[in-house]
Design goal:
Length: 269
């Protein structure tokens, strides 16, 4: 009950803020560019196949088209209050970078190729109901392990890793590139993957690696230690971050000022 009460109060608060900002906009004769709102609406609508699909997606989130337009109007009016009032200097950006070095530390990364013997191959998933596959999981797991064992044998006998990946890997996303997974940061893939890579030097091939998808054999191409992201690469992102932080403070102060000026009365306890 307390949670519902908190949500209800939050909704009331948002409605009050929206109305106060809208009233202040009218009071100051601030005009909202309708073309800008139309442009934003089109950008939101674009990913959907039809107007009906767009409206259905909004309905699922309990949002109406008018709600969207109201929110955009308030955003535009609030932006008008902070326009020209925020100036983030180069020195502030550099100071933030220096004070938060750990935030800009790239973790260890590596580039690998792999060959996957999947428990459920892409062909199986396309032609067989998942429930039926789950019932056969133990049998299919054994078959996948037998496939990776045969692949490992071929590699030990001198087979080319890339060519074997193109012919026998069940990973459709990397198969055509010879199993190349490109540069990946440590911690992104399955822990078993990271553990196997930690034992390899560039050019070396792992033994059998088990993950939730099946069985892999991995070849390490290159490995990079943790490194600091250069300031130049982060400068724009930090600038935007500091701008947004200042914008939030100004907007909060502006809204509080409107509340003090207005007579707000609610009957919600």
């Amino acid at each position: 009950v307390r949670e519902k009460t908190s949500i209800a109060k939050d909704l009331i608060e948002k409605e009050i803020v929206r109305e106060l900002v809208h009233q202040q906009g009218e009071k100051n004769n601030l005009e909202v560019d309708s073309d800008l709102i139309d442009k934003e609406m089109k950008a939101l609508r674009e990913p959907y196949a039809s107007d009906e699909e767009f409206k259905t997606a909004l309905k699922a989130r309990d949002i109406t088209l008018q709600d969207l337009k109201n929110s955009m109007t308030v955003d535009i009016l609030l932006n008008a209050q902070i326009k020209g009032k925020i100036n983030i200097s180069d020195a502030e950006v550099k100071k933030y970078y220096d004070a938060n070095e750990k935030k800009f530390l790239r973790p260890e990364s590596f580039r690998t190729r792999h060959i996957l013997a999947a428990i459920f191959t892409p062909e199986m998933l396309k032609s067989t109901p998942i429930k039926e596959l789950q019932n056969k999981r133990e049998e299919l797991t054994q078959q996948a392990e037998e496939r990776i064992d045969a692949i490992l044998k071929e590699l030990k006998e001198g087979a080319n890793f890339e060519e074997l990946a193109k012919k026998k890997s069940n990973d459709e996303s990397s198969r055509e590139s010879g199993g190349d997974l490109d540069i990946i940061y440590k911690g992104i893939l399955d822990p078993a993957f990271d553990e196997a890579i930690a034992k390899l030097n560039p050019g070396e091939i792992s033994g059998k690696v088990t993950t939730q998808f099946g069985f892999h054999v991995i070849q390490l191409i290159e490995k990079h230690p943790p490194e600091q992201t250069p300031f130049k690469e982060m400068e724009n992102a930090i600038q935007k971050h500091l701008f947004m932080e200042e914008a939030k403070k100004l907007v909060a102060a502006y809204v509080e000022g409107l509340k003090k000026q207005a007579k707000i009365e609610t009957f919600f306890n």
